[in-house]
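Input chain follows. Return structure tokens only.
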Amino acid sequence: MNARSTLERPNANSAVLTAADRCDMCGARAWVRATMASGNLHFCAHHARNHIDALRLKALEVVDERHLLVED
């Protein structure tokens, strides 16, 4: 059985995403980290929006920090 979870904020065992974490697709700042069996995938808000449903189904853990984004 896979332990799948979606976290709004990282738990004590999970690192917080920083500005150094970059989207694997475009290089922008990553706001979502999906832990897969083969390793971590990082996504910017745009690419996370496009793939979040599939990630939640397949990932072991999803850390979603998009709620930290603010508009000016």
